[in-house]
């Protein structure tokens, strides 16, 4: 018992009995209990919480987690064709080095003086992303693409004072669901159909559904199915003629070769930065960007932090600061724009480092690499009897394979693939009733030719 | 060996590299990293691939990213990191409400394990049993900490958890057919700004009640605003003043009697672990910030992570999926009858959940209670010492103890010397400290909020106090040195005049060039 009393936890220096006694004396109380006197006895918890036995030594803790995590099978140990919003791209060593730096990892909300580097690096993230997007404004990242899209739509609602958004029906159902939850009941969400042969937006349906209450049209390019939408300009025009905004969700990694949304009429572009030098983490390492022209009216609707560059009292010194801070809920609570708090800044810094390393040539070469490999994969997979490419339009990185001809369900196919160490494409049967027996395949640079060949061979054996 | 003593770092100087903006490092032709070419066989099969991109979707000009060699990119980022004052470097107690505690390195090492970082959210459940077990076990732990019945770790942050709470409140009243009528959320001025702001996003009208002379909202003010329009109450306790509202159970009763739900903002829970729980205070739901109380590092502003808990009455409204255990297998459950649906991509901020779990496992029930006890001890020690500094007060003291933080005021000093909180925050940087004012509005004039957590030794707390003492001394004897501060930080007085001027502000380098260089 007395031994227990004298246990000093390495994370809690002042649990050392002499120090504790000295501090209590300074405060003028005998026991720590007295410091809780404002909590009524009826609210005091007098039992001991039933928590697992602690692993007090670092050694035991480490061993415990190694055992626990070893139950996972990773995309490194297997061949993965999974995408759908979380991507297994190559992470340059420098990205891990930078976001592992204790300064960046453990800083939070310092002033632009002692945290100059935080402001500087996030300003650069905004600037590098702006080049990818060919827009002049990018936010300090929010949680994920879903949040970025939701906020973009709410921004459009406030800008136009309208309350409906038309959303492409081939947005991931999870994202659609979360957008819906975020915008209701203030706004209403309506789906726009796509042509289920080409995968492109059905413009007739769009024209039918657009009306004076529509604040924005939201679509993604490349879409959830990897389809390159080539009617962006027309869609934006339809939006603008109606006084609505055109909002486009995009995968920034595609923009080495693909036109950014700004170049086909988008007013706001949004998406996720996870693919830019950040590991997958079970889908938990996301970061959302929102980007637009340098137009006061739109900028004033951002809930996010926006870091800007400025000068200091010393000639030649760069300084950084929040731009238009008064928009935020930090400044005006419920009268600010939506809300702001801790989100995904470290991933923003990481994505900045990634783009700085890649440079213009790196991004172009990477996109070509992915494009060629996915074309190869399409060729190999569709050579398997019973596997067809579902949509006729051009694709980037992801594509939908229809296994109807095989007479097998995706679930069965994926189970058989898994037995051979292959994570088959995501089963779309549950998400889209029109896509029974279809799977979403994703090809990144980390999938090798041998991996693709092995997939094709294995599919041949299975179906 | 002689015992360590507090010493103010008057010779401190933060790293200052006078570093360029990355675009200024552009040297055409340099490369940061090589992307491999595809195998020759692939090229033979599919050609260069480029022609498959529809003509009108081909990017004509490459993105104007800078071209910089690898070592220079690295150096650039390392220099910027050195110009950032992480919690690992300073006595980071000046950012009250944010719980800047030690984030143990072992937890980062655990999170860096490829077995955690290289898993995809759409993998077969059989292949992610470890990840699901982490989330499942965390739920069990949070049920104990709060006394509530079910938890989801899907919220991306504390503010996002408030949005989830607001979504649950709306759904609950919709299901009862009172959704249109019950459109008001009540909160208090010393609750986090997001308690008001995130609830407003869900279309609620916000009613903010203010504190009485003792710093607390009295029950009568609450009774005045509850009605059949009340959807719910979102309240922090202890509030940002660090004062525990001892009548909290009466508050929840008043709101329940009016037909509303109660959501406990437990962002300030660092002094409450094993001391008092959500359940006994009568709340229907609550949330915790995994990056505050549960130590996941703040990452310059994220990744954050939230845990939302509810009583059994609300469990069928939680976001999907929940994690369940059948036999010895873990799985994702989407079959939640009245779910508000998805609220973020995938299942939550996994690396943050994992680090928080590791932190809890390194402490256990007794350790968590010690965390809270020592955090409260440290705070009340500081209260004693800081209020002894000339010009500093702790409004609403009235002999009250404080839990884990205190909102102080330099109003007296400001009135007597013209030196206020903002001046002090700049001067504190000269000694290697960070000090923050407070959330707006400044109900407490010239506010600053100090939260020592359990992580810092008495000697370190004394060092911080010496910094505040030095600022006070200077305010009364040599205010000019404060007005010119910071002197020893990375940069000097920033020109804030551009930040609110649309003609001058520049949120990106290209905007800067357009507005200030190539006008």
Please explain how this structure is put together:
The complex is a heterodimer of chains A (463) and B (519). Helices cover 37% and strands 13% of the residues of chain A. Chain A has 463 residues and is α/β, with parallel strands linked by helices. Chain A has 3 domains: 2-52, no CATH class; 79-89 and 362-462, Aspartate Aminotransferase, domain 1; 93-355, Type I PLP-dependent aspartate aminotransferase-like (Major domain) (Aspartate Aminotransferase, domain 2), CATH 3.40.640.10. In chain A, helix 6 (116-133) runs parallel beside helix 13 (345-382). The longest helix of chain A has 38 residues, at 345-382. Chain B is of the alpha/beta class and 519 residues long. Chain B is built from 16 helices and 11 strands. Chain B has helices at residues 40-46, 70-82, 105-112, 114-117, 129-146, 158-175, 193-201, 219-225, 248-257, 350-361, 364-386, 411-417, 421-428, 458-477, 479-483, 509-517, and strands at residues 150-152, 184-188, 205-209, 230-236, 261-265, 285-289, 306-310, 322-326, 329-333, 406-409, 447-450. In chain B, the strands form 3 sheets. Chain B has a 7-stranded mixed sheet, with helices on both faces. Chain B has a two-stranded antiparallel sheet with strand order 8-9. In chain B, helix 9 (248-257) links the parallel strand 4 (230-236) and strand 5. In chain B, helix 3 packs across helix 10 (350-361), helix 5 packs across helix 10 (350-361) and helix 6 (158-175) packs across helix 7 (193-201). The mean pLDDT of chain B is 96. Chains A and B meet through helix 2, helix 3, helix 4, helix 5 and helix 6 of A and helix 1, helix 2, helix 3, helix 4 and helix 5 of B.
Strand order within the widest sheet of chain B?
1-7-6-5-4-2-3
Residues in helices of chain A, as a percent range: 25-40%
Low-confidence stretches of chain A: none
The CATH superfamily name of the largest domain in chain A is: Type I PLP-dependent aspartate aminotransferase-like (Major domain)
Which CATH class of the largest domain in chain B? Alpha Beta
Oligomer: heterodimer
Shape of chain B: globular
């Amino acid at each position: 018992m007395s031994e227990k009393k004298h246990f000093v936890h390495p994370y809690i220096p002042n649990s050392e009995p002499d120090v504790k006694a000295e501090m209590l004396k300074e405060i003028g109380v005998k026991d720590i209990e007295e410091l809780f006197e404002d909590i009524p006895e009826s609210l005091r918890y007098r039992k001991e919480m039933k928590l697992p036995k602690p692993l007090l030594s670092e050694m035991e803790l480490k061993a415990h987690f190694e055992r626990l995590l070893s139950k996972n099978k990773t995309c490194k140990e297997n061949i993965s064709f999974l995408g759908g919003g979380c991507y297994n791209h190559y992470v340059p060593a420098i990205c891990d080095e930078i976001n592992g730096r204790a300064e960046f990892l453990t800083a939070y909300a310092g002033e632009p003086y002692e945290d100059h580097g935080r402001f500087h690096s996030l300003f650069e993230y905004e600037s590098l992303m702006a080049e990818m997007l060919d827009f002049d404004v990018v936010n300090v990242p929010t949680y994920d693409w879903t949040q970025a899209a939701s906020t973009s739509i709410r921004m459009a609602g406030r800008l136009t004072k309208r309350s409906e958004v038309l959303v492409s029906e081939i947005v991931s159902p999870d994202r659609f669901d979360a957008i819906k939850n975020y915008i209701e009941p203030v706004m209403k969400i309506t789906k726009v159909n796509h042509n289920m042969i080409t995968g492109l937006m059905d413009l007739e349906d769009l024209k039918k559904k657009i009306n004076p209450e529509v604040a924005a049209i939201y679509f993604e390019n490349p879409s959830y199915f990897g389809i390159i939408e080539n009617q962006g300009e027309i869609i934006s025009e339809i939006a603008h003629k109606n006084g609505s905004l055109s909002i486009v969700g995009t995968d920034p990694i595609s923009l080495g070769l693909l036109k950014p949304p700004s170049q086909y009429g988008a007013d706001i572009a949004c998406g996720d930065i996870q693919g830019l030098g950040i590991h997958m983490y079970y889908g938990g390492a996301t970061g959302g960007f929102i980007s637009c022209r340098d137009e006061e009216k739109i900028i004033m609707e951002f809930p996010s932090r926006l870091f800007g560059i400025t000068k200091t009292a010393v000639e030649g010194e760069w300084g950084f600061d929040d731009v238009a801070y008064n928009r935020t809920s930090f400044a005006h609570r419920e009268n600010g724009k939506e809300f702001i708090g801790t989100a995904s800044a470290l991933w923003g810094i990481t994505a900045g480092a990634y783009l700085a390393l890649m440079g213009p040539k790196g991004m172009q070469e990477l996109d070509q690499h992915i494009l060629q490999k996915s074309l190869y994969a399409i060729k190999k997979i569709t050579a398997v009897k019973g596997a067809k490419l579902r949509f006729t339009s051009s694709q980037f990185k992801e594509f939908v394979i229809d296994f109807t001809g095989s007479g097998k369900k995706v679930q069965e196919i994926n189970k058989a693939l898994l037995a051979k160490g292959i994570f088959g494409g995501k089963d779309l049967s549950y998400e889209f009733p029109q896509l029974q027996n279809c799977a979403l395949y994703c090809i990144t640079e980390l999938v090798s030719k041998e991996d693709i060949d092995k997939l094709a061979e294995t599919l041949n054996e299975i179906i | 060996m002689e015992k360590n003593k507090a010493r103010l770092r008057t010779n401190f100087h933060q790293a200052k590299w006078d570093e360029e903006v990355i675009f200024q490092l552009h040297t055409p032709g340099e490369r940061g990293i090589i992307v491999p070419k595809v195998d020759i066989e692939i090229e033979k099969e599919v050609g260069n691939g480029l022609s498959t991109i529809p003509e009108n979707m081909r990017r004509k000009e490459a993105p104007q990213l800078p071209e910089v060699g690898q070592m220079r990119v690295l150096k650039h980022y390392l220099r910027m990191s050195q110009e950032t004052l992480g919690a690992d470097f300073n006595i980071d107690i000046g950012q009250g409400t944010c719980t800047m505690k030690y984030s143990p390195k072992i937890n980062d090492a655990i999170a860096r394990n490829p077995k955690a970082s290289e898993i995809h959210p759409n993998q077969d459940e059989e292949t992610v049993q470890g990840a699901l077990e982490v989330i499942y076990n965390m739920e069990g732990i949070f049920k104990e900490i709060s006394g509530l019945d079910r938890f989801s770790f899907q919220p991306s942050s504390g503010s996002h958890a408030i949005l989830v709470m607001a979504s649950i409140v709306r759904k609950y009243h919709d299901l009862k057919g009172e959704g249109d009528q019950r459109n008001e959320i009540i909160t208090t001025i010393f609750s986090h700004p997001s308690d008001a702001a995130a609830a407003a996003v869900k279309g609620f009208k916000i009613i903010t009640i203010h504190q009485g002379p003792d710093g607390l909202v009295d029950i009568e003010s609450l009774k005045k605003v509850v009605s059949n329009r009340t959807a719910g109450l979102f309240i922090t306790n202890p509030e940002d003043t660090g004062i525990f509202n001892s009548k909290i159970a009466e508050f929840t009763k008043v709101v329940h009697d009016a037909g509303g739900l109660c959501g406990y903002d437990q962002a300030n829970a660092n002094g409450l672990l094993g001391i008092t729980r959500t359940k006994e205070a009568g709340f229907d739901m609550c949330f915790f910030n995994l990056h505050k109380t549960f130590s996941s590092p703040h990452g310059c502003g994220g990744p954050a992570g939230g845990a939302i808990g509810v009583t059994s009455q609300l469990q069928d409204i939680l976001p999907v999926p929940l994690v369940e255990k059948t036999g010895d297998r873990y799985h994702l459950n989407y079959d939640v009858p009245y779910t508000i649906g998805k609220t973020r991509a995938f299942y939550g901020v996994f690396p943050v959940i994992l680090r928080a779990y590791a932190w809890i496992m390194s402490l256990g029930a007794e350790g968590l209670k010690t965390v809270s006890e020592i955090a409260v001890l440290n705070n009340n020690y500081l209260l004693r010492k800081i209020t002894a500094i000339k010009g500093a007060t702790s409004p609403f003291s009235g002999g009250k103890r404080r839990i884990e933080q205190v909102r102080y005021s330099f109003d007296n000093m400001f009135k007597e010397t013209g030196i206020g909180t903002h001046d002090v925050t700049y001067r504190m940087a000269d000694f290697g400290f960070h000090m923050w004012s407070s959330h707006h509005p400044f109900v407490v004039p010239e506010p600053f909020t100090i939260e020592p957590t359990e992580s810092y030794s008495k000697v370190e707390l004394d060092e911080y106090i010496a910094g505040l003492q030095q600022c006070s001394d200077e305010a009364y004897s040599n205010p000019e040195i404060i007005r010119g501060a910071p002197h020893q930080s990375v940069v000097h007085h920033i020109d804030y005049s551009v930040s609110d001027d649309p003609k001058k502000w520049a949120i990106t380098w290209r905007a800067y060039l357009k507005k200030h260089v190539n006008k």
